[in-house]
Amino acid sequence: MLKIAVPNKGALSQPAATMLSEAGYRQRTDLKDLVLTDEANHVEFYYLRPRDIAVYVGEGTLDLGITGRDMLLDSHADAEEIMALGFGASRFRFASPAGSDYTLADLEGKRIATSYPGLLEGYLADRGVKARLIHLDGAVESSIRLGVADAIADVVETGTTLRKAGLELFGDPILHSEGILVRRPRSAAQIDPVALEHLTRRLSGVLVARTYVLIDYDIPESLLDRASALTPGLESPTISPLAKKGWVAVRALVPAKGHQPLMDDLYDLGARGILVTELAACRL
Ligand SMILES: Nc1ncnc2c1ncn2[C@@H]1O[C@H](COP(=O)(O)OP(=O)(O)OP(=O)(O)O)[C@@H](O)[C@H]1O
Ligand SMILES: O=P(O)(O)OC[C@H]1O[C@H](OP(=O)(O)OP(=O)(O)O)[C@H](O)[C@@H]1O
Ligand SMILES: [Mg+2]
Prior knowledge:
This protein is an alpha/beta fold. It has helices spanning 13-22, 50-58, 69-75, 117-126, 160-164, 193-211, 224-230, 259-269; strands at 2-7, 35-38, 43-48, 64-68, 80-84, 90-97, 111-114, 132-135, 151-156, 167-177, 179-183, 212-220, 238-241, 247-255, 272-278. The two termini are 25 Å apart.
């Protein structure tokens, strides 16, 4: 059995469970369940705090886990990122009171509040900035107003929380984070390679199915080269003959994002009967 850690709460919990369900794995229906065995797929899921997942996997107790890249780096655990999962995207950024116009160099000797001291420490050390880190559990945006910090380093998604706290971003993003799949160190006991490959292929299939759509259209054969250039597919488009003389049918995968303008371009070129279909699953 593969032992896989899944976030039990927080921003990554629901998207991780949804992705695993779409990949054909059983997921818990009761949020109080701590373990779920998926007999058919030979997998055991352990529902743990996202922050602890890299620790369990890094210690080699569990084979694999889903966590945030920021949490993996903050933990300094010996777990290894093997796949980005395309959900829970955020940036880890500095912020200070609006109008304060801070730069990275201004942080010298200042107090910086964060829930990710392990991540921040390394970043500041690499840039030769000495500051005092104030370790808080959450709601870090309130720390400046409450007088315990001069600046913060925190997770930003939409920026709404920052704005509400009267803060503004400064400096370059410290990290671009998202949900990731981590594995235990290669020095620990081996992970069943076949089981691991099945899991990663299934997850990649979900990612592709979410990112691409299938496009079908009919086009005069004389325009095929120009149409194929618009829809090159992943390998190459499938071309089938049509009963109508001089016409062919084309099928290709195209990025889901921007498929409407692509349909306009194909129509303008002379394509007709343009159909777009969502993918339920795929294995490339
Ligand atoms: N608003 C958000 N949008 C996207 N990802 C987020 C957001 N907030 C947190 N994350 C990501 O989710 C992961 C876990 O953060 P989360 O907030 O769920 O845990 P936590 O702060 O330890 O727990 P809690 O907020 O429940 O106390 C991190 O990788 C983080 O980058
Ligand atoms: O940019 P935004 O879209 O506003 O999202 C970012 C906020 O979301 C997270 O908070 P969470 O709800 O996890 O609370 P926490 O600070 O207590 O962890 C994060 O810590 C930020 O505060
Ligand atoms: Mg949080």
